[in-house]
Amino acid sequence: MSEQEDLRGRAQEMRDKAKDLEAAAEKSTDPAERKRLQEKAHRLEDQSVQVSGMASGDIYPME
Q: 31-55 and 3-27 are packed helices; what angle lies between their axes, rounded to 10 degrees?
């Protein structure tokens, strides 16, 4: 497997995990826990965008 394929797979795993966290946040009855899960999901989604950019050859990380 090439490095590019590894990065794509990693980005997909991160997106899947972010979706799982969002679903868990929606089911949470504790507002603090819901917020924590949503923030973690957003961070993972942002990271997956960066990893996806690296896989496509974009040399500049997103801010």
A: 160
